[in-house]
Design goal:
By secondary structure, this protein is an alpha+beta fold. Helix content is 24%, strand content 22%. The structure holds 2-oxoglutaric acid and fe (ii) ion.
């Protein structure tokens, strides 16, 4: 018996993808129905197992997870715990309240910003964040000392995982292993990372940390120090609370895998609520994108009479700017390109 590490037995994944209209479907994603439904767990190491049967079972499971969820916890990814410890420690030091004035230099100046800082405490958003460009050239703040080294270490490890997932996901789409890497030109992929600090509830104004959104790109990788308020809207219209296992990575499919696969794999709306957080929380969400000049449209392999082209093509750069945002804002424009 081949063991697949999962919060659910993979054999339970028998619900066909098109069966989304069960009684829990709300239609209105603002309806507050929360669920502690478990988010599936994928074992990264099994996707590359030397045992062909084990590997093919793991890929089959990943394929179901991508179609029926679009997000999952990734475990056994091989990134050492120390890399996460350093990342969270460095990020806490960076957000030290006594150095707030130093961070203000990264307040929005214009579209060429390579580092962007902001702090919103309002009923619509409660977080302090810094966004940095992590790839193809990195742009990190010089302080605190050694922080850029820590970030470099983290993003270098994470990119290996992202390339591994691109290969595994290409196979789940029954395409050549390098299909996604080539379609997105990931070698020069444009990665923006948001380091977020959420206040505890007694210091926030209202319940929202980050409002509803989807993220552009191939996938989003997200790590956090403590659980606290991230919710993802499932295809059944339920908000699922994310309880990320210690040092696991939350993977979410981005808008561009949805576009490339003509909607076979979908990006999902998510948000952060801070109303129940007794302590502050840090998250690092990295949007791993195609190269800026890459034109992304549904691949012919996913378009036929039964599946007409559902999205218009656009370069990644144009997509990021289509909402009037800067590249570093990484705003979704999915609604604008749906046909
Ligand atoms: O902090 C989180 O849990 C989510 C952040 C997020 O969605 C983002 O930065 O795009
Ligand atoms: Fe996000």
């Amino acid at each position: 018996m081949v063991e697949i590490v999962s919060s659910r037995n993979p054999c339970e994944f028998t619900t066909p993808v098109h069966c989304i209209s069960d009684s829990t479907f709300l239609g209105d994603h603002h309806a507050d129905q929360y669920s502690d439904d478990e988010i599936p767990t994928v074992d990264y190491s099994l996707l590359f197992s030397d045992d062909p049967q084990q590997q093919s079972l793991a890929l089959e499971y990943l394929s179901q997870v991508c179609q029926e969820y679009g997000f999952f916890y990734l475990v056994n990814h091989g990134i050492p715990d120390k890399v996460f410890d350093n990342l969270f420690e460095g990020t806490y030091d960076f957000f030290d309240p006594s150095t707030m004035d130093e961070r203000r230099v990264y307040t929005k100046k214009g579209p060429k910003d390579r580092i962007r800082w902001d702090r919103n405490t309002s009923s619509g958003e409660n977080r302090e964040y810094i966004k940095v460009i992590a790839h193809p050239q990195y742009h990190f703040p010089p302080n605190p000392p050694r922080f850029s080294e820590v970030l470099d270490g983290y993003y270098t490890e994470m990119r290996k995982i992202v390339i591994g997932l691109a290969r595994a996901m290409s196979k789940t789409l029954e395409l050549k292993e390098d299909f996604i890497e080539k379609a997105f030109n990931l070698k020069s992929g444009f990665d923006v990372s948001a380091l977020n600090l959420y206040p505890p509830n007694h210091m926030s104004k209202g319940r929202v940390g980050v409002p509803d959104h989807t993220d552009p790109g191939f996938i989003v990788t997200l790590v956090q120090d403590v659980n606290g308020g991230l919710q993802i809207l499932s295809h059944k219209g339920k908000w699922i609370n994310a309880y990320i296992p210690h040092n696991a990575i939350l993977i979410q499919i981005g808008d561009h895998l949805e576009i490339l696969s003509n909607g076979k794999y979908k990006s999902h709306i998510h948000r952060v609520l801070v109303e129940n957080n007794k302590v502050q929380r840090i998250s690092v969400a990295t949007l791993h994108g195609p190269s800026l000049d890459k034109y992304i449209s549904p691949a012919p392999e996913f378009v036929d009479e039964d599946h007409p082209q559902a999205y218009r093509g656009m370069t990644y750069k144009d997509y990021l700017e289509a909402n009037g945002g800067d590249q570093i804002d990484v705003q979704s424009s999915l609604d604008q390109i749906k046909l």
